[in-house]
Write a structure and sequence with these properties.
- This protein is an alpha+beta fold.
- It has 2 helices and 3 strands, in the order ββαβα.
- The protein has helices spanning about 50-60, 90-110, and strands spanning about 25-30, 35-40, 70-75.
- Strands 1-2-3 form a 3-stranded mixed beta sheet, with helices on one face.
- β1 (about 25-30) and β2 form a beta hairpin.
- The chain starts with about 25 loop residues before the first strand and ends with a helix.
Length: about 110
């Protein structure tokens, strides 16, 4: 007997992580304000995981009707030291940044409705 298999189990699309699963970004909503805090000591260097968490945080804020403002801040002395180029080739840095910008544009559009 053949059993139907849900395609969700085998999807290659990345699942959005919930804010409580974030490692490098803190996310908190108070009233109509969502606060996204960069938290990768010591210089908040952006890596792929952090960019994904930022995109997920903005998407999560955009999905909530009560959120009217997103504040981006830092838990470190330095707001953001840029992209952690030690982890990437220049081509991979560019692709990662463009993906983040694409995610962010879509999230900002959904948040502005």
């Amino acid at each position: 007997m053949n059993e139907a298999v849900g395609t969700e189990e085998y999807s290659t699309k990345r699942q959005r992580r919930a804010p409580d699963e974030f490692k490098h970004v803190k996310f908190k909503v108070e009233g109509s304000v969502a606060r996204v805090t960069l938290n990768r000591p010591e210089h908040n260097l952006l890596n792929e995981a952090m960019l994904r968490e930022l995109a997920d945080a903005v998407a999560f804020a955009g999905d909530r009707d009560e959120v009217k403002l997103v504040v981006l801040d830092s838990a470190c002395k330095v707001f953001c030291g840029g992209i952690d180029v030690g982890e990437y080739t220049s081509q991979r840095v560019f692709r990662c940044w463009m993906r983040f910008m694409g995610h962010s544009r879509g999230c900002w559009k959904s948040a502005s409705r």
